Task: inverse folding
């Protein structure tokens, strides 16, 4: 395992987190946890929630838990402290990544104030020659809108009569983005918004030579641009403000002392949040559920080595897991029996999604999913069946940290309770909740917290009619899924034969349990 063999980190210690963070004392149930029944009793909702409360306290102290920032370093310290208290010798793997701190803004100040969401409704324009920083608040002036061929802004004549000091709203098309932005500046614009083509709500990177451009420029979806254009006399603010540098962040690992290293079972969750948020569901829930499972696994003597991982910089593009996999040798990859991923397992308007390892939904290309992944899906589906809970396929697209593993042929699976997609009427009939609302209405937002601050009060009151919620966490979904995490890890810790054909030696309570599950699948 290519990890620097050192424990000392140049990051905050747990004591530096302040009195608001209380390190939970790991609690064990019984003399051992060598069966699914025992491990799921040992992994409790209270235990998982204590970790979430610690993550919330860290965010309260530092503002968020994003990689490259103090809150993430404190989150690493917390996980390491918990693992050490449980008896592990955790390893911390550091790596560098391209850090961006985006503080861009697009706001309609008046009338009908609206704040548009960076990354969803707009992005800063990153031309070949860079992104000029600055801010401007001024009247919005559409330029040649509507334009049948979208050529508005391509010539100086399009800006005839343009009021100097205004913010130009221009539609994409007819010439390069940079041409339109430079022409707007030449006409006296204080800022520029380029909206997408009719009906296109995608966000694209700006291209072209914008040499000499000094005003802030953003690119908006068609819907956002149309919304701005529909309000005559609007005053808007356009801000481009960002930091870009190279920073260091960390992955955390812990593994069992017992087990076959040549048939290692890995389970992981990303530890980082997005910027400006606690990241409690995304992905405090997965990190906390995995951490409590690891703590209780210290009372297990598995046949296969179990390696737990908490990934850094997932929100920057799966960078932690990519770094780890990229630095494995072919032999080390061959030693991995499978990988389990847990990213968002307590969404407030949840579904029980299982990664579609058998591609029954037909969303993956031929050969994309490694053999053995279907059998991992079977284990989770059997768990939900035994609990009397509904479940459904979750697209196996490589969107989370299992992506780098399946890219090198490692079978994978995992759980997902949903993000920005809206719950259907049929799903609401199965799970309860609110049809037409997102599975996680606070996805990638500051309201993804335990406090309830910033959440849509009416929507969350409606959700509370069906569910027990703590802030942005559905405690029923989290309780069930924490057990699902523990059950799957324990099952494969003793026997991976359904996945890769490697039979576990001897007999044990855990192995018997795994064989029983395997036999049920064969019926």
Result:
């Amino acid at each position: 395992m290519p990890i620097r063999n050192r424990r000392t980190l140049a990051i905050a210690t747990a004591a530096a987190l302040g009195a608001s963070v209380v390190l939970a004392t790991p609690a064990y149930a019984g003399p051992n946890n060598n069966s699914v029944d025992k491990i799921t009793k040992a992994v409790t909702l209270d235990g998982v929630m204590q970790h979430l409360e610690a993550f919330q306290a860290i965010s309260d102290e530092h503002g968020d838990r994003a990689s490259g920032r103090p809150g993430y370093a404190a989150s690493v310290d917390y996980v390491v402290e918990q693992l050490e208290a449980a008896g592990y010798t955790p390893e911390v793997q550091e790596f560098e990544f391209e850090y961006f701190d985006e503080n861009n803004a697009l706001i309609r100040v008046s009338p009908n104030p609206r704040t548009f969401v960076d990354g969803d409704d707009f992005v800063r324009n990153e031309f070949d020659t860079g992104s000029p920083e600055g801010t401007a608040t001024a009247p919005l002036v559409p330029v040649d809108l509507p334009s049948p061929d979208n050529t508005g802004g391509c010539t100086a004549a399009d800006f005839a009569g343009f009021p100097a000091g205004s913010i130009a709203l221009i539609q994409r098309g007819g010439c390069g983005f940079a041409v339109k932005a430079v022409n707007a500046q030449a006409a006296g614009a204080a800022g520029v918004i380029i909206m997408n083509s009719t009906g296109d709500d995608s966000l694209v990177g700006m291209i072209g030579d914008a040499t000499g451009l000094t005003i802030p420029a953003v690119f908006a979806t068609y819907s956002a641009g149309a919304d701005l254009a529909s309000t005559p006399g609007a005053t808007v603010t356009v801000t481009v403000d960002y930091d870009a540098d190279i920073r260091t962040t960390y992955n955390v690992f812990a593994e069992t002392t017992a087990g076959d290293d040549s048939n290692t079972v890995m389970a992981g969750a990303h530890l980082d949040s997005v910027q400006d948020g606690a990241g409690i569901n995304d992905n405090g829930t997965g990190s906390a559920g995995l951490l409590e499972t690891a703590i209780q696994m210290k009372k297990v003597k598995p046949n296969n080595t179990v390696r737990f991982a908490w990934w850094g910089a997932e929100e920057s593009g799966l960078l932690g897991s990519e770094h780890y996999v990229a630095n494995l040798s072919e032999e080390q990859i061959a030693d991995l029996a499978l990988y389990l991923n847990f990213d968002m397992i307590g969404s407030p308007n949840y579904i029980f999604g299982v990664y579609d390892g058998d591609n029954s939904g037909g969303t993956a290309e031929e050969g994309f999913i490694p053999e053995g992944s279907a059998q991992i899906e079977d284990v989770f589906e059997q768990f939900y069946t035994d609990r009397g809970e509904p479940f459904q396929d979750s697209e196996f697209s490589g969107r989370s940290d299992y992506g780098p593993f399946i890219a090198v042929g490692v079978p994978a699976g995992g759980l997902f309770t949903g993000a920005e997609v809206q719950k259907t009427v049929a799903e609401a009939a199965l799970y309860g909740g609110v049809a037409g609302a997102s599975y996680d209405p606070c996805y990638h937002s500051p309201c993804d917290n335990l406090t309830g601050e910033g959440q849509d009060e009416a929507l969350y009151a409606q959700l509370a009619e069906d569910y027990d919620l703590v802030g942005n966490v559905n405690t029923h979904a989290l309780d069930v899924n924490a057990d699902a995490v523990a059950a799957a890890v324990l099952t494969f810790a003793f026997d991976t034969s359904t996945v890769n054909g490697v039979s576990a030696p001897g007999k044990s309570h855990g192995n018997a349990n795994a064989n029983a599950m395997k036999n049920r699948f064969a019926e």
Confidence is low (pLDDT under 50) at residues 1-25, 506-523.
